[in-house]
Specification:
Blueprint: E1 2-7, E2 18-23, H1 45-57, H2 79-85, H3 88-91, H4 104-125, E3 129-131, H5 137-154, E4 161-165, H6 171-178, E5 182-186, H7 196-202, E6 207-213, H8 225-234, E7 238-243, H9 255-258, E8 262-265, H10 267-270, E9 285-287, E10 299-302, E11 308-311, H11 328-368, E12 380-383, H12 394-402, E13 410-411, E14 420-423, H13 431-450, H14 452-457, H15 469-474
Parallel strand pairs: 4-5, 4-6, 6-7, 7-8
Antiparallel strand pairs: 1-2, 3-9, 8-9, 10-11, 12-14, 13-14
């Protein structure tokens, strides 16, 4: 094979217009050639369009269905953000273009966007500096814990464990262990918060820090958060804020003001960027001043003349954590979203998220027989254990929702709640959608009591019925084509 460089049609001034074509210097061997023409269907354009449109309708998406997916918000992605983030001046910039000389003028706008976004997130969270490089929430967690480890190593601290509540996201203990720490798990109390007495008993001079989600996955805001932060700082530990549920408090509370030292945010949860299917995602990390030296390289700097550049001079940095500057397109969408909202808009969004969750919780409380549950934040968790007397489990409710055009919420998480069902309506939905969800839940619970086999058979409206997940895990059939 050889490369042929050809000039394409002229583009915008200053934008490279060269294209690369591949040309073979050898003919294809006859053993790889067909002896007869391929038998391809003869269909009209209309039939092709209808076929792929019908396939697209088989997918659940926020544009077509209600998505009460607790612990992983699938909120609406404003089309204005999509349009603005797709302008050629943003999408046509290559990360390897120079920042200053030659093509530098073309990258200044993108670097300025990243610089401004870092400062916006610092203002929103009350932390001193952010990095936008982590390419997912879990990646942000690992970046944050690595900076915590670098801080302790730099100070000569001999610390070997991190405290994490049992309601934490599973990536928390994974990130802590990847960074070299042991994990000490603290059970929740009857109010859904990390048991304070057990936490105090576990805290000692070997504690490197505590990882908390506040509000947590049960939708509970820890009212003793300041006491926890103060206690950890007394042993020179660090407080890590898992910002996966930040949409519940944005504009209202700042993690930095509570006493947290490190914080990662999931832009897809709080700032309405696309998410699903494993990406794309973005997990920026913010730190207090004493952790600045350990931020990953490179850092975006701005001169007095307003010129942006990348600075690699950081001898205490944890180094590179992504090949370029994160998922730039996702950061751009979130930046535009924040500019559209402003502080009052963020506060209104948070209020709506909490209001919607509490509205659903109160509507569904009688259905699940829950009487001693207080107010929640952005999401709540009920147990479907009462259905087992009818031979029905939470997974059956979830499958039944699919037949009623509702994406199932998170089930069986957190593990501390038997037959858990976690519901998060998000701020995007109106009252009619929420009331319809309540009606569907009432219908499914009644069906569980009167005709449970119908739920065992669900879903019946999808191209593929219910899969045997246990068999799939134990009897995997792998093929390579």
């Amino acid at each position: 094979m050889k490369l042929i460089y050809e000039k394409s049609s002229p583009g915008r001034p200053g934008v490279p217009t060269s294209s690369i074509k591949l040309s073979s210097t050898k003919e294809i061997s006859s053993e790889f050639l067909r002896s007869t023409p391929a038998e391809l269907p003869e269909v009209s354009e209309a039939e092709v369009v209808r076929h792929f449109t019908a396939l697209s309708r088989l997918n659940f998406s926020i544009d077509t269905h209600f998505y009460p997916l607790g612990s992983c918000t699938m909120k609406y992605n404003p089309k204005a953000c999509e349009a603005a983030a797709n302008i050629p001046e943003l999408t046509g910039v290559h990360p390897l273009w120079p920042q200053l000389h030659g093509g530098g003028l073309l990258t200044q706008g993108s670097l300025g966007l990243l610089y401004n976004m870092e400062h916006l997130l610092s203002e929103i969270t009350g932390l001193d500096e952010f990095t936008l490089q982590p390419m997912a929430g879990a990646h942000g967690e690992l970046t944050g814990v690595m900076m915590m480890a670098a801080y302790h190593k730099d100070r000569g601290n001999d610390k070997d464990h991190i405290i994490i509540p049992d309601s934490a996201h599973g990536t928390n203990p994974a990130s802590a262990q990847l960074a070299g720490y042991k994990v000490v798990t603290i059970p929740s109390d009857d109010k859904g918060m990390m048991d304070f007495d057990l936490f105090k008993a576990a805290l000692n001079d070997k504690t490197a820090g505590v990882m908390l989600t506040c509000p947590n996955t049960l939708g509970v805001f820890n009212t003793r958060i300041k006491e926890i932060c103060d206690a950890v700082h007394e042993v020179d530990g660090l407080m890590y804020y898992d910002g996966a549920n930040f949409n519940a408090i944005m504009g209202r509370y700042k993690p930095g003001d509570m006493g947290f030292d490190v914080c990662h945010l999931n832009l897809h949860k709080s700032f309405s960027t696309p998410h699903g299917g494993g990406g794309p995602a973005s997990g920026p990390v913010g730190v207090v001043d004493k952790l600045r030296p350990y931020l990953p390289i490179s850092r975006i700097t701005k001169t007095e003349d307003g010129i942006y550049s990348l600075n690699y001079d950081a001898p205490k940095s944890i180094g590179y954590i992504s090949p370029f500057y994160g998922n730039f397109g996702i950061v751009a969408r979130a930046y535009i979203y924040l500019l559209m909202l402003g502080r009052e808009g963020m506060l209104g969004t948070s209020n709506r998220a909490v209001l919607n969750a509490n509205y659903l919780q109160e509507k569904l409380r009688p259905l699940f027989g829950v009487e001693d549950r207080g107010r929640c934040m952005h999401e709540f968790v009920f147990s479907g254990s009462f259905l087992t007397q009818y031979g029905v489990h939470t997974i059956d409710l979830a499958k039944g929702m699919i037949d009623r055009d509702i994406h199932p919420p998170t089930v069986y998480f957190p593990l501390s709640v038997p037959e858990a069902i976690m519901i998060e309506p998000t701020e995007s939905e109106d009252r009619d959608v929420l009331d319809n969800f309540v009606s569907v839940m009432e219908e499914l619970v009644e069906l569980a009591k009167t005709d449970p086999d119908k739920l065992h058979e669900a879903p019946i409206t999808t191209p593929v019925g219910r899969l045997d997940e246990v068999k799939a895990a134990r009897d995997m059939r792998l093929s390579y084509t």
